[in-house]
Design brief:
With 393 residues, the protein is α+β, with helices and mostly antiparallel strands. Among the domains are: 14-31 and 188-328, TruD, insertion domain (Pseudouridine synthase, 2-Layer Sandwich); 59-146, 2-Layer Sandwich (Pseudouridine synthase), CATH 3.30.2350.20. It is 29% helix and 22% strand. Strands 1, 2, 3, 4, 5, 6, 7, 8, 15 and 16 form a ten-stranded mixed β-sheet that branches.
Length: 393
Amino acid sequence: MDDTSPDSGDHGDVGEHSSAGLMHAAVFEPALLTGELPGIGGQLRSCDDDFYVDEIPAYPPDGKAGGWLFLQLRKRGMSTEDAVRALARALGLGVGDIGFAGRKDRDAVSRQWISVPVQQAARLATVVIPDVELGPAHLHSHKLRTGHLHGNRFDIVVRELACVPEVAQAHAADKLARLHALGGLTNAYGPQRFGDGTRGLERGLAAMLGGRGGSRGNMTVAAGQAALFNLYLELRVRRGLLRRALVGDILKKTDTGGLFVCSDAGQDDERLAAGALVVTGPIYGSRTMSPPAGTPSGALEREVLDIVGVDDNALRSLGRAALGTRRPLQVPIGDPETSWVPLVADSALSAGMRLVFTLPAGSFATALCRELQLGPTDPLPIRGHDATSAAAP
């Protein structure tokens, strides 16, 4: 069985594409794993309620008096940053005084955990912010930090489908089964990570080329890192290497999360096929864990940098603001469910299909929607994939 099954469009040999064209494809039109199967078509985000995100925390509030309160923030039609800024103003705090684990989509309804100083307990009860609701506060011993979440549960309605309900659900079921057989969803960063599209991509790559790290968590640098990861992922998919180990690969154990360097590709291929391992790709930075020099995996990671023109000096210059890390090339789709949403009388909204599923922290729901929506002859892009912030750290 073909372990990658890129989409049915003829990508040709990678060398036939310009560097700019290859990068654009990797970021905005990445290869599909189910492109040979018919899609459901449709549109996302017909209204905010059609895209609901519920954060799954890494741990519950511990109830200890450590100076912080944990509470859930529910927002509609605004980014996490905008909601946090509004709450900070209402409480008379700096934005940095409020902790959150991940950024959630703007054009959506989402619920996520935040932390505020315990001294704000009384004022929280009086806060009124349009399109923001605050849940009960719980004592916790430390501030919530970026990345402190397990994942996200999505509840998404796709409307204006290309086929009747029974056919749409059958197509979705076929694609979900195919993705499961292929080891999961490709873990590409969605276009949301690049802000204003091509310009955001260009600024991100320029920051990587110039070694301009800036402040920790700089979103311009993060866009450049995401673009390079997507390019690495695209090359592996196109070359049939998504679920094949290369000597030197940094592999991740799916049960413990431990990382190790592949020294026997044949042996690790068996564990990849069994789902015990997943290949990781580089989030390039000043101290990224990298394959040993002289290995096939090391050569591939170097090829990505050479395509863009980023050298080692530029990476080192990023400093502590962009240390770099590893990211799995695939992620599991947790407990997917589909159901039909009928037309509501006196509503401008068409009928649609509800898709409910869980993804690990940092993964993009729109990547799964794109897999389900597109088929062998569908045009790109699908409408509704252009939110300005991601449901991810």
